């Protein structure tokens, strides 16, 4: 069983993100041991008080909490597989991006080998680590999370335990990234369209962000409609027919003004198929039918 000062923490992986994580633990006054495949990346952290472990074995035995942030799941196993005996009784908080299948497989691996495992997801960038709004997700045993939550919360005010199912962290991760790209793609498409009339992206920005607030209101109603699971999708704001008509204007304008129309074409296809399923007089939430299941 692990033996170290509970305020000690080990960080494995000192890329852009790992360095930011370790720096925040140091700032919080924790004894921070670090290890990286290329040891030179530890220099700055060591100058600020971090202890550089010579080997992964030294790193994992230095603390009860081992935070890992490397490129991918293969890298995690390349580092930890040779030292699993030493992990027994400790908690690995894995902040390496990965899939839900990997998260569940790693959970089984950890359980068989007798150490705690939290699958994590980082919803911020290195410069924002430690900020009050920065979100870090963890999924896995509540007990393992509670034991180390005071240290883990240093990384961001939005640090949250999602539940016991390890898959939740990667699933929330990619779902939120998808929202980010969807929103950004629409912003970029709108900015391209408006640029044909000499409007700067900065002029579009305040209206775009205000519109995101309106979209939040629509999504709030749609969440309830999706979760009701009754296939009703009452059109309290606008019908699919009305949405489809408006989308055709976006498609027409994009083509007429000579900007890229791929995104409106794609959405046009989704709406057309939803309407073909008989949802013309239902709300936009009916599109969930398409997203939930692949086309037959
Ligand atoms: P990075 O700067 O490219 O660093 C990658 C790290 O992985 C380095 O420490 C590298 O070691 C290590 N590594 C790669 N292959 C390895 C192997 N086979 N054995 C041992 N170590 C290995 O990446 P990063 O930006 O820090 O991202 C790390 C993780 O955080 C990724 O999963 C990423 O998706 C996630 N993440 C990053 C951000 C971000 O904004 N950067 C945001 C959210 C999530 P060397 O230094 O020796 O190459």
Describe this structure in words.
There is one protein chain. The protein is α/β, with parallel strands linked by helices and 296 residues long. The protein folds into 2 domains: 8-164, NAD(P)-binding Rossmann-like Domain (Rossmann fold), CATH 3.40.50; 196-291, N-(1-d-carboxylethyl)-l-norvaline Dehydrogenase, domain 2 (Orthogonal Bundle). The protein is built from 11 helices and 8 strands. The protein has an 8-stranded mixed sheet with strand order 3-2-1-4-5-6-7-8, with helices on both faces. Strand 7, helix 6 (142-152) and strand 8 form a beta-alpha-beta unit. The chain is elongated, with a radius of gyration of 24 Å. The protein binds NADP nicotinamide-adenine-dinucleotide phosphate (NAP). NADP nicotinamide-adenine-dinucleotide phosphate is lined by residues 13-18, 36-38, 41, 69-72, 75, 78-79, 96-97, 122, 125-126.
* CATH homologous superfamily annotation of the largest domain: NAD(P)-binding Rossmann-like Domain
Q: Which descriptor suits the 3D outline?
A: elongated
How confident is the prediction overall: mean pLDDT? 96
Could you tell me which ligands this complex binds, including any ions or cofactors?
A: NADP nicotinamide-adenine-dinucleotide phosphate
Q: How many domains would you count in the coordinates?
A: 2
Determine and state the CATH class of the largest domain: Alpha Beta
Q: Please identify the structural class as seen in this structure.
A: alpha/beta
One letter per element, helices H and strands E, the order comes to EHEHEHEHEHEEHEHHHHH
**Total E-strand runs:** 8
The percent range for strand residues is 5-15%
As residue ranges, the low-confidence spans are none
Give the biggest sheet. 8 strands, mixed
CATH-derived architecture of the largest domain: 3-Layer(aba) Sandwich
The share of residues in helices is 40-55%
């Amino acid at each position: 069983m692990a033996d170290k000062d509970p305020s000690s923490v080990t960080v494995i992986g000192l890329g852009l993100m790992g360095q930011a994580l370790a720096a925040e633990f140091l700032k919080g006054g924790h004894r921070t041991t670090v290890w990286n495949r290329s040891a030179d990346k530890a220099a700055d952290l060591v100058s600020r008080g971090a202890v550089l472990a010579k080997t992964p074995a030294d790193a994992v035995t230095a603390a009860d909490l081992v935070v890992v942030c490397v490129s991918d799941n293969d890298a995690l196993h390349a580092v930890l597989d040779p030292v699993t005996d030493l992990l027994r009784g400790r908690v690995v908080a894995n902040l390496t991006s990965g899939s839900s299948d990997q998260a569940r497989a790693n959970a089984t691996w950890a359980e068989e080998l007798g150490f705690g495992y939290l699958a994590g997801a980082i919803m911020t960038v290195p410069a924002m680590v430690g900020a009050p709004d920065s979100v870090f997700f963890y999924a896995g045993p509540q007990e393992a999370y509670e034991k180390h939550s005071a240290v883990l919360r240093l990384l961001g005010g939005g640090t949250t335990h999602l539940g016991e199912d390890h898959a939740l962290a990667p699933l929330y991760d990619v779902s939120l990234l998808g929202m980010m790209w969807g929103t950004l793609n629409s912003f970029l498409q709108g900015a391209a369209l408006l640029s044909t009339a000499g409007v700067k992206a900065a002029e579009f920005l305040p209206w775009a962000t205000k519109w995101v607030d309106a979209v939040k209101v629509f999504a709030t109603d749609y969440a309830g409609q999706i979760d009701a699971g009754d296939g009703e999708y009452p059109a309290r704001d606008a019908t699919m027919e009305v949405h489809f008509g408006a989308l055709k204007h976006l498609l027409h304008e994009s083509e007429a003004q000579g900007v890229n129309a791929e995104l409106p074409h794609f959405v046009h296809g989704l709406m057309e198929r939803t309407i073909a399923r008989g949802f013309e007089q239902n709300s936009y939430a009916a599109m969930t039918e398409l997203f939930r299941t692949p086309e037959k």
